[in-house]
Fold this sequence. Notes:
This protein folds into 4 domains: 2-39 and 69-147; 152-277, no CATH class; 311-390, Threonyl-tRNA Synthetase, Chain A, domain 2; 399-677, 3-Layer(aba) Sandwich (Rossmann fold), CATH 3.40.50.300. Helix content is 42%, strand content 15%. The relative contact order is 0.07. The chain is built from 22 helices and 20 strands. The strands form 5 sheets. A 10-stranded mixed beta sheet has the order 12-11-20-19-18-13-17-16-14-15. By secondary structure, the protein is of the alpha/beta class.
Amino acid sequence: MWVWLILLAMVGVGWYVAALHHWVPAVPWHGAAAWHALWSPLPSAVPRSSGALQRIPGQPSSLKGVVGPSHHVPIAWGTIGWGVGWGLGGLWVLIGTLAWLYHTPASVRNGQTWRDWMFWRWPMIVLGTLTHQPSWVTEAFHRYHRTWTTAENPPGIDATWSTVAHVLDAGLARSLGDAIWMTGPDGGPVRRIQIVADGDGVHPAWPHGFDAEMMQAWMQWATQWAEIALHHAGVPGSWTVSDEGVVRRGRDPQHGPSPQVISGDLPSPVSRTMRDGLSDTTRWGAQGLTWQDLRSVAPNPLPLLTTPLPTDRVQEVVQVLAHLGFPDVEAIGGQRGLTVDVVKIRPPAALAKRILAESATLAGQLGHGDLPLRMTYVDGEPGVIAVERPRPDRQFVDLVTAFARTDPKDRQKIQRMALPVCCLVQANGIPFWSDAATWPHLLAGGTTGGGKTMTLAGWLASLMMTVPPSQLRITLVDLKAGSSFPWAKQMPHVDALLTTPTEVCTLVAQWVDEADTRFAAFAEGGVEDLRAALAAGWTQYPYRMLVIDEFKDLKDQLDHDKDALKDLERNIGRLGQKARGAGLLLWIITQHPMAVAIGSTLKANLPSRLALKVTSTSASQVILDSPGAEMLLGQGDALFKDSTMGVAVRGQTPFVTSNVWHVIRQGWSPDIAHRDHA
């Protein structure tokens, strides 16, 4: 602004001096005379005697009679012109500066951007507006924005952080292209949000003011995709997004300290972390093992649970549908999971039902063989169908990685669960957790190769890592001499491993009596159920879980003793009806999900379901009460729904590495248990 003021002052002074010395160089200024002369008629002829207008040394007063009012006219008009010039120039600068403030983010308001705006962009914008040339205005705005949006490396910013900002900004633009653009004052598109690197870290910048909805969209996108985008861009390390939208990186032993911004101004976690960004005290479950206990068995680096879905995987589905006679199907997008690629499409409403019926044909045309593709409507997205395509390069996930990749907000929910189970990892890379205390009983089934044993081991390990032995006691039934659970006898949570039908019948009968005993104690103590008793500080009643593997084999071995089999089924029915409130939970697993083995009464008392791969639609009906499990791929590809869910969720169940059992055993040793939970 001072540059303009100085220039205007110089113009005004020059005008005044020129007028004074060109027209009447020897005339002293007299304001009243000038004002009078300004409004007096100008004589038709003015004497031009050179002597009359020259200064005579020693006689300055001799000119008073020569100079008339008409000599003040150019001086007066010059003065008015000077004032008008100052006024118009000041108004020009004021309006231009206000426009500059409106169109420029606070982080880039400086002398350089102001000069670029006032000397080059603002004149073209005004000229284009006056001459009705909108293209001039648009081009001026675009050129101005490029002067500060292309400055990717502010002084003192580490090149790594500039790369991070560039990758995330480009990824956000590709993923949320419609959302990040808005209509600017000139009618052209401008960015609502940009991801920048500066002294405050890598974070959103708001060229046209903060937008709450866009901030929420950025948080959701960055939480799910930032680390993946950076991984594919070759930027090492593990990345998280704070509640303020700032992208942070933890310490990385393989790559040294985190890159710093302006001498370490970039926020970093206060506690000691690995590349995963988890602190030593991070827990899953209110009293579970900590990350310090689990870190030694975690992969380093932690693998990704989802990656961007190639565009051709989406377009192939649309093209094949068009070939099959389903035109105008809109491609919405998709996600790449560990097991399947989820392609989202929106067909015309009249064609949706027919497309859902063509899953087998679609699978064959896409090269997936004779295994039908699972297709379902997407919750919250009207008219959108999710087509689940098997991945050609299928991936698996271990339980500790699933723990570590659980979102911090989900960890807060897990803290409130009585019996947290990491059930599976969904196609979007998000681990799905559920509280086993609310199920309360489970029916699980799948054929050989479906991953039943590994899934069961992962679920039980999840419980043992999140709940102390004092609050959960587990009894396992394995009629194959315990070969399905070779780790069981060393686990602090396991009470017994039963291997004969007689032991099972006896225990189930005892549990029925224990349920009655617990309810009587609850009534006397004024609490409703075990959850209320635990909240009131009761410690004498832990949750008890009975896991019966190969339920059909158990029934077959009791087939010779009809009375024992009848008593077992009756007692299981009684437990299913009333044992939930008492904290006695029942999991029944079968390799042969047939109606003759799992009757309707038993199913009614086992409301939560886990389906692994089965051989037929009827077997899927037995477990899920719906088809779908026959389309699974085996090896932990599963469908799960608890008693509160109407539709099953699909995902890859986590497996347990052998060293995890050692960590669980050591983690609950008496000294550590006393230290953490006293």
